[in-house]
Every structure is written in structure tokens, then in C-alpha cells.
Specification:
single chain, 2 domains
Length: 176
């Protein structure tokens, strides 16, 4: 049974006790906030130091790039650099964050050999399956790039059920 707190006892609390109680309150508030954001699919449960990581497998979003110029062909991972693209997308911490023009431009600056090729970007994450019990990868985001002109591309995609689109001008860093 907890002791009853009176005003006299509260006045006797030292600064140290008040700080500890305040930190515990903030920590509890963050746990509730993190679990709420994870349940709505807004953030990666394994990021930002919350308890949402205990609700899902470490999903480690995996990017695959396909060349869809003629037929859909997977571009081997060793043929393109994606670390700056991942950084431009905040390392996929915000799970439902759309790819944007700047991220695609970073990708093509790092991979000029892929410019002027129609591409499909696919993000897959680990999810639990019940029958049979396992962890498998499922697509949760896809975006397509089309090049109507040599120096301009359009993009269209879907992430977390939301569609988006845009266009950008591409200027290579170096002339090939």
C-alpha cells in the first residue's frame, strides 16, 4: 500500500526528488507518445529510443531498384549507391515519408549511369505473418521515375496508402 502524500510531505521533497519525479513523468509521456506514433505507422518502431520496438520486428527498410525501360529487371545492389538517398529520406525513420525531388536528385547525382532510364524504387519491410509463424518482407512503398526529356524526369509513387507525384530537372554534376 502506498503512503498518503500530504502537502507537508510534498514540501519536504528535495530538489533531487523533484527532478527524478519529473524525469519519470517525461519518460512515461515519451513511451505513450512513441507507442501512439508507431501504432499509426508514422515512425519506425526501432528508432527514436522508444518502446515501440517491442511491438514489431526490426523492419530495416530494404530498397530495391528496377529498370522498367523495356521490362522490369532488378538492378543488382552492387551497381548503384543508395546511402545518400537513404540519408536524404532521413534513413527511413519516418515510415510514411514520401520520396521527394531532392532525394531522387541525390540518387541520380550518385548514380549518373542510371539517369535517363525509367526506374522503379521499391521499399520493403519485415512483418510478422501468422500462418505459418514467420517474419517476411512486404512492399510498403513504390515509386516510378519516367524521363520525358533528357534533362527532366517525373515521378509517381505510393507510400502507406497515399499517392504522390512530381517532376524535377536533372543537371548532372559532371558531363559524361
Amino acid at each position: 500500500m502506498l503512503p498518503k502524500l500530504s502537502v507537508a510531505k510534498l514540501k519536504k521533497l528535495s530538489g533531487r526528488h523533484i527532478i527524478i519525479i519529473g524525469l519519470l513523468a517525461l519518460h512515461t509521456l515519451w513511451i505513450i507518445t512513441h507507442l501512439t506514433l508507431v501504432s499509426k505507422g508514422l515512425i519506425n518502431p526501432w528508432k527514436l529510443g522508444g518502446y515501440g520496438m517491442y511491438t514489431k520486428p526490426n523492419y530495416r527498410a530494404k530498397l530495391s531498384v528496377f529498370d522498367i525501360s523495356s521490362k522490369q529487371v532488378v538492378i543488382p545492389r552492387a551497381k548503384y549507391k543508395s546511402s545518400n538517398f537513404r540519408d536524404a529520406n532521413l534513413r527511413y525513420v519516418f515510415r510514411c515519408r514520401q520520396f521527394n525531388e531532392e532525394a531522387f536528385l541525390v540518387f541520380f547525382q550518385d548514380n549518373p549511369h542510371l539517369a535517363n532510364r525509367d526506374l522503379r524504387f521499391v521499399l520493403r519491410e519485415k512483418v510478422f505473418s501468422q500462418k505459418p509463424v514467420a517474419v517476411k518482407r512486404e512492399t510498403y512503398s513504390a515509386a516510378e521515375i519516367h524521363w520525358p526529356q533528357k534533362d527532366q524526369f517525373t515521378y509517381r509513387g505510393e507510400i502507406c496508402g497515399t499517392e504522390y507525384s512530381g517532376a524535377a530537372e536533372y543537371k548532372p554534376k559532371y558531363k559524361l
